[in-house]
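User: Structure with pyridoxal-5'-phosphate, tokens only please.
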Amino acid sequence: MAYNFDDSVDQNLFNGMKWEPRYRHGKDFLCFSLADSDFMAPPQLTKRLTDRAKIPHYGYAYRPDSFFDSIVNWYERHTDWKVKPEWISKGYGIYPSVCLIIQEFTKHNEGVIFQTPVHEVFWTVIEANGRVPVENPLKLEDGRYTFDLEDFERKIVNNNVTMFLLCSPHNPVCRLWSETELSALAEICLRHNVLIVSDEVYAPLAHPGRQFRPIAALSQEVSMSTITCFSPSKAFSLTGIKDSLTITENPEYMRRYEQALIRMNMNFGANLFGNIAIQCVLDECDDWLAQQIDYVIENREVMARYFRDFLPMLELMPSDSTCFAWINCKGLNLDDREFERLLSEEAGVLLRHGYHMGPGGSGFVRMMISCPRATMLEGLERMRKVFAK
Ligand SMILES: Cc1ncc(COP(=O)(O)O)c(C=O)c1O
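Assistant:
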């Protein structure tokens, strides 16, 4: 079956945060800033949720064995990680779980290291929990991002770092990290007894021919030092459902994580609609996802041609996964804030500007391109008109 990605749901029909600026400010903004897809969710999913909604009782839900089987099978189809049902716990979103892990596994004023540029919430979750953010900027080598391992190890040693928060695949630079790159990081973490927490929310969005590798799949030793946070939310237009999975092979980590859930009374029950949604998209929507990824790759190709023809001072950075275009705007020679003001006030185009994302972000913007092509093109057209002035 061919799915339709050219149309999106009328934003007036629901309160979507992504398009909130348009309604709040009464201005015709085009919103590409928030990492939320505009695509309609898979029809199979809508059917499952509406079928359940028609049963007039919404009591506490439990997760049947088949729920865990769906996760195990999805990992088996898409990765080389052999997950076992008993390794899987729950979360009410990736970041709420990361917060619980920070509280449970690190102490006040200890360092948590991560690579920049990255989603700004990495700083928020670390600082809001009284820990110290330690930045390890990515290196840009021949137009491709990779890790600076020397800086990584030095900062772990010098900053009392006890946890590494990995973003894999990476938001915003769209890299799928290779086995060699991940192994080098893991080796350093093992050497210094640093817990690996891997945020893998973009895992389903690998481009065709590229394989997503969960860091925990590297070896049993690495797996026993890792907690993985995963959700199909970004890939299947599900972010408002706020449901996720926390996975670890290490039984002691699992015991402590579940203890942290109990402290917040989050162990009791489960997300009724979230569980149905996760199971449905993992079991039934491979084909829908593959078509979505092809559509987004075509969006990238259209954007690259547009830049070549009309905006040659912008450079679309290579990508092997995710839903973003990461764009080098240094050719414009504009101050970051002035560029942001110009786009927002004069073009009415809202992007996520890289200077908010830490070292390495200045001069870049992130544009969410999981959207109908016509919307993306209108955004580009508005940018062109502003730059033409
Ligand atoms: C890397 C990354 N992790 C997590 C999230 C948010 O996940 P959740 O809404 O499940 O907390 C985002 C949202 O943009 C993200 O970019």
